[in-house]
Every structure is written in C-alpha cells, then in structure tokens.
Design goal:
The complex is a heterodimer of chains A (about 130) and B (about 575). With about 130 residues, chain A is of the alpha/beta class. Chain A contains 5 helices and 5 strands, in the order E-H-E-H-E-H-E-H-E-H. In chain B, the strands form 4 sheets. A 5-stranded antiparallel beta sheet of chain B has the order 2-1-5-4-3, sandwiched between helices. In chain B, strands 7-6-10-9-8 form a 5-stranded antiparallel beta sheet. In chain B, strands 12-14-15-17-16 form a 5-stranded mixed beta sheet. In chain B, a hairpin with a 5-residue loop joins strand 9 and strand 10. The chains are: A alpha/beta (about 130), B alpha+beta (about 575). Chains A and B meet through helix 1 of A and helix 9 and helix 10 of B.
Chain lengths: ~130, ~575
C-alpha cells in the first residue's frame, strides 16, 4: 500500500477549488485547499504536498509571487508547482515558469484530462530528479 | 613750291576784277562752310564756289585712303568726267611717278603746292596727256587738315599757265583752312551728337528706372532727381533739387550721413546699405541704398549718386516669414504637448485595455470553468449514474458551454491582436511533426463526419516561427474545412515555395465552397457565411479574421481559391525564418 499523495490547491474561487478537489480525490489524491498565498505558505509545511496546484490570478499576492515565496521556503523548495493559467495575456506561461512553476494547466479545467495532466507533470519532475 | 608761273597781270582794272572775284569766291566758300552739314556737301559746295565764282577750270577734293595709299577724289565740280576718271595719285613719295605731282607733294609737306605751268614740269609728266586733253595749264593744291593732321587735299585747276598769283594762293589757302575748320566742327558735332545720344540713353534709364535715383553734391545738395524718386519720397524734382538730402533722413539717422559722406569722400561705393528714410509726408520706410561717388573732370569727387530701393515689402515678407515661423513653432510646441497628452492617454487607455482584457479573460472563464468542469463530472457519472435523457441534456449543456468558451477565446484573441497584446514568440520547430500532430487533433472530427483526411507534405523540415500561432491558424483552417465539407475529403498539402524561402500549406476540401461575392468579406470579423438563416455551422465567425491577423503577425500570407459547390483551397504561406 502506497502513501496517499497530497495536492495543495491554492485557489480563491470555491467552486473551482471544489471542482479540482473532486477530480483529484477521484484520481486518488488527498487534497488541501488554501484560499490565498499567505495561507498556502502556512499550510505547505503541515500538508507536505506532493504537488501544489497554484491559481495565478489570486487576490492580493498573485500566483507568481506565491510561487517565488514557496521556492524560498525549505518545505516547498522542491515541491512541483503546477500553475493554473487562464490562457490570457501574452507571456503568462513564461512568467509562471520563470517564477518557479514546473508546469501549467489551462483553465477551464477539462474533467477528462485534468488528472492525467497533473500526473504528467509529476512524472516529468520525478524523471528530472 | 612748284612755281614756274609767269609774271602777275599788270592790268589794274583786270587785276581789281580778279581780286573782287577771288573775295567773292572766298565769301561763297565761307557760306558753304557755314551751311554745309556734312563733309561731302561741304566739299562739293566749295568746289562749286571755286569754279562758278573763282573762274577756275575745275576743282576737287581728295581724301587720303590709307589702305591704297591713294588720294581719292570725294567731291568735284567742273570736271567733265575725263580727268578724274581713273586718276591715280599715290600719297607716299617714292611710289613711282604718280606720287610726284602737286597733290601728293602738298599732302606730304602740309603746304600748298602751286604748279603754274602744268604741261612743262617733269613732276606732272605722268598726267600730261590727261591734263592736255582736259585743257589744264596750271594747278594749285592745298592741304586739308582734320584735328591738325593732313587728311586730304583741295585741288584747283586753271586753263592758263601762271593763273595762281599771290592773291589766289592766299585766298585759297584761307579757303582750305576754312574747310579744315569746318571738318573739325563736323567732328566735334559728331562727337557731341554721340555724347548727347549716350546722355539721352542714360537719361532714359534714369527717368524710367523703378528705383529712386538721385545725385547730390559732396556737401549733400540734391542735384538730380528721377521720377521714381518723386514717387518714393513724394518730392517733385523742382522741390528738392538744390536742397539738402537731410530732408530725407530721419533725425535719429542723421549721424549715418556723415559716415556715408566720409566713405564717398574716400572714393568708396556703398552697396545695399540698409537704413530708414522719410518721405515728404513723414512716412518712414526701410530702404536699401547703393551710393557711388561722382568724379569731376579733374578726377576729384564732387558728389554721389544714390540708387534707393524701398524694401518695405521685403521687410514685410521677412516679418511675415518670421511670424509664420514663430506661429509654426508655437503650433509645433502646442501640438507636441497635445500629442504627449494624447500619447499618455492612449498609453493609459492601452494599459486599461490590457487590464480589462486580462480581467475579462479571467472573469468570463471562471464561471465556465465550473460549468464545463461539473458537467463533465456528471457526464462521466463520477457522482452517480444518469439516465439517457439526462445524459443527452447534459451533453447539450456541455456543447453550449464549449461553444461559449470558443466564442470568448476568439473574441479575446482578436481583441488582444488589435490591442497589440499578442506577442509573437519565434523559435525553430519541426514543421513535419507539428503537421502530423494537427492532423491527429482534427482526425476524430473528420471520422465522425466520414470524411477522408489526408496529409501530403513530404519532409518540409524546420521553420523558425511562433509554433503555437502557426498551429492555431492551421487548426482553424482544418476545422473549417471539415466543418463545411459533408462528403469527400480534406487534404493538407505542404510544399516549399519555388525560391525556398517559405512553405506553402494548402488546406483543400470538397465542401460547399464560397460564392464569389462572399470571398471579399471572408476574412472580416463576424462574417460567417450562411450565418444568416439556419446557422447550420456553429462557430464564432471570427476564425478567419483571427487567422488573417495572425498571418500578418507571422509575416505569412493567407489566401483562398474557391468554387461554390465544388470546394475551397486555403493557402497559408509561411516564411521559413521571421524577417526583421
């Protein structure tokens, strides 16, 4: 029996976090939710997530700032971060990668592929060592 | 003197008659001198007086012709044509026998030459035959001078030897002197006439000049004044001549006159000297003056001529130009400021637009995220089983949501392109692999419609462009082709262009095609053909507009060949490397 992997979802919109949580739990993950950046930084040590699903458009501290902050904390410096981008403005993805994210998933979430996408990023990061 | 004449006539009565006749002749000669206007008329009249009143056989006047060295008859009276016709008299001694006669002798010596026995003296032998035939027995020749230089001869013949006695010689000498005097007068008249002509021409120029011209003495007294000066200054010549030029100079400019006079006094001319002058009515105006010294006969400077040009107009033009320039500069400054404000506004509008687009993108998608997400969850029956009707209806919800998402994406895309928010990120990529992947992406759709989908693009290699945008264009074109084709095939043909600088990707379908009249609006936003009625083909109507704009951003070209009811070919010509 393998240990249940935990995903930390950083998302201010409850419906979206519920959707992601529902799909992830169906995919066999445990889920913790942080509604903003500061909360995510608090939770990350306790949750010890296998990956962090980070919405870029957060109120106050935006996703890029949260990613940079997470990278500087010892608990999360190596945890894969997957950005949730909204296919918006030029350079969003590149900015996310620069801020320390390992991958990105475009919103709206496609229920058919969502979990597969996350697994793919995790596999890539694991392969990288 | 060649004087071999006989003794004077001793008969007193006849002598008295002879002297009276000679004085009468001289009177007529003098009258001719007084009356004649030309040298030719004078010579003829003098000859006529000699013959008619002096009872000489005949008389002629010869002028020296330097080129031929001959004394050439220019007037005669009393010759019947036999004597002077063909007569040759050389003026220079030593030029043969024809240069030894009395005429040549008188010419050379400048003294009269009397030959009182023409047919017996050796000097005249050359002409004996001719003289004998004409009845000449004696001759007298007197030099004619012009400007104190001997220029010709006055020749008188008589039919008796010894005809020329002291009285005759004295009077004829006087007649010759009068002729010389007359010739000098003619020369002086001619010179004066020429001088007058020149003066008249200068006066005409002076009178008709557009520029004011006047002259002044060295003490500043006006001595000449032309009509243009009258017009410019308002003084008539009669009013101003004799008065001082200070009348024309404004008080605050009087000091200039001393400088000008000093320079004129040194013989200098002033050209284009700009100053202010004042007219009779007090009007002051700018002028440009050209001032030249006038010298007297002895070379001393006695005054100056002034040419004065009114440069009010020039000043006005220059002023107008300066004003225009100032106005222009002011406008440029104002306009620049306006533009700066406008630019600031536009930039701030751009920033607002960008922020708005980002917000819209997020805000519109967030609810769709839930709709599509949860519909998907329900359709996958993760929470629990659905009956057939529920599945069908939830399927419709999902299709509508996806359509709405496509609409939002397209609207945002075109807005981003038009706001300049869409960046092109160029990198080399494997076009062949990309084409395979795109065909695979649209394959399910083609299968569903039972349309053959083919790729005919043998090894195109790598291109350097924005892969994401290239794929967006091609997927759009492929989706369209499949969407508008009910049976047949869709083929993606890829070939390098002839020059090898680009790749031509052609999407060929056997679909409904496009009517010629619709081709023009094909690439414009919200122009889906057929959208009017049944909206048979669901779409945003923005796809081709986006494709065209993306093509522009990629320096690519997009075009269409189509026949209604037969099919369409969309060409996308992509440069292998981005230019610029």
């Amino acid at each position: 029996m393998t240990m249940t992997r935990t995903i930390l979802i950083v998302e201010d919109n409850e419906r979206n976090s519920y959707l992601a949580k529902y799909l992830l739990e169906h995919g066999g993950f445990a889920v913790r939710i942080a509604e903003d950046g500061p909360r995510a930084l608090e939770l990350v040590a306790e949750a010890a997530p296998s990956a962090i699903l980070l919405d870029i458009q957060l109120p106050g501290m935006d996703g890029y700032a949260v990613a940079r902050a997470l990278r500087t904390t010892s608990h999360a410096s190596r945890v894969p971060i997957i950005a949730l981008t909204s296919y918006a403005m030029a350079g969003d993805r590149e900015k996310a990668i620069e801020a320390g994210c390992d991958g990105y998933i475009e919103k709206p979430i496609d229920p058919d592929n969502f979990v597969t996408e996350i697994e793919k990023v995790l596999a890539t990061v694991a392969a990288r060592g | 003197m060649i004087d071999d004449g006989k003794s004077p006539d001793s008969d007193n009565g006849a002598n008295l008659e002879r002297v009276r006749r000679l004085y009468g002749t001289l009177r007529h000669v003098n009258r001719a001198v007084a009356r004649a206007r030309t040298s030719e008329a004078l010579f003829r009249d003098v000859c006529e007086a000699a013959v008619d009143h002096g009872k000489f056989l005949f008389a002629w006047v010869g002028r020296y012709d330097a080129p031929t060295d001959c004394l050439v008859p220019v007037a005669q009276y009393g010759d019947d044509g036999q004597y002077l016709d063909g007569l040759k008299i050389f003026a220079t001694y030593g030029n043969g026998p024809a240069s030894r006669g009395p005429a040549a002798t008188a010419f050379r010596t400048g003294k009269n030459c009397i030959c009182n026995d023409f047919l017996s003296q050796s000097e005249t032998q050359f002409w004996w035959d001719r003289a004998s035939r004409r009845g000449i027995r004696s001759a007298a020749v007197f030099p004619i001078r012009e400007n104190n230089v001997v220029s010709g001869v006055f020749v008188v013949y008589a039919d008796r030897p010894g005809f020329f006695q002291n009285e005759e010689v004295m009077l004829l000498d006087e007649a010759a002197a009068d002729i010389s005097f007359a010739l000098d007068n003619f020369a002086r008249d001619e010179e004066r006439r020429r001088a007058d002509e020149v003066a008249r021409r200068y006066v005409a120029i002076f009178e008709s000049a557009d520029d004011a011209i006047f002259s002044k003495s060295i003490d500043g007294t006006v001595t000449g004044w032309n009509p243009a000066a009258e017009r410019l200054f308002g003084y008539r010549a009669a009013e101003i001549v004799g008065r001082n030029v200070v009348l024309l100079i404004p008080a605050d400019r009087l000091h200039e006159e001393a400088t000008i006079l000093a320079r004129i006094g040194r013989g200098e001319a002033l050209v284009g000297f700009e100053t202010i002058r004042v007219a009779k009515n007090g009007r002051e105006f700018p002028v440009a003056e050209t001032i030249s010294p006038i010298r007297g006969e002895d070379g001393r400077i006695v005054g100056a001529s002034k040419i004065v040009r009114d440069i009010t107009e020039r000043h006005r033009s220059a002023e107008a130009l300066r004003e225009a320039n100032a106005t222009l500069e002011r406008r440029v400054v104002e306009r620049t400021a306006e533009l700066a404000v406008a630019k600031e506004r536009a930039e701030s509008a751009d920033r607002l637009k960008s922020a708005f687009l980002a917000t819209m993108s997020h805000e519109l998608r967030t609810p769709l995220n839930s709709i599509i997400g949860f519909t998907g969850i329900l359709l996958r029956q993760l929470p629990g089983p659905l009956n057939a009707e529920q599945s069908l209806q939830l399927g419709l919800v999902e299709a509508s949501a996806r359509h709405l998402l496509a609409l939002i994406n397209d609207v945002l895309d075109i807005s981003k392109i038009e706001a300049g928010q869409l960046e092109v990120r160029t990198a080399p990529f494997d076009l062949d692999a990309a084409l395979v992947r795109m065909i695979a992406t649209v394959a399910p759709l083609a299968q569903k419609k039972r349309i053959a989908l083919r790729l005919d693009a043998p090894s195109l290699g790598r291109v350097c462009s924005d892969q994401r945008r290239v794929e967006q264009v091609l997927l759009n074109l492929l989706n369209n082709a499949i969407k508008f084709t009910e049976e047949g095939s869709v083929t993606l043909v890829g070939r390098a262009t002839e020059d090898g600088a680009a790749v031509r990707l052609s999407i060929c379908d056997t679909g409904i095609g496009i009517r010629a009249e619709d081709v023009g609006t094909l690439f414009k936003p919200f122009r889906q053909i057929d959208s009017g009625s049944a909206r048979q083909h669901e779409g945003t109507g923005l796809g081709l507009a986006i494709c065209r704009r993306l093509a522009e951003l990629l320096h690519a070209k997009i075009s269409v060949e189509t026949e209604h009811g037969v099919g369409s070919v969309f060409h996308f010509v992509l440069p292998r490397a981005q230019v610029g």
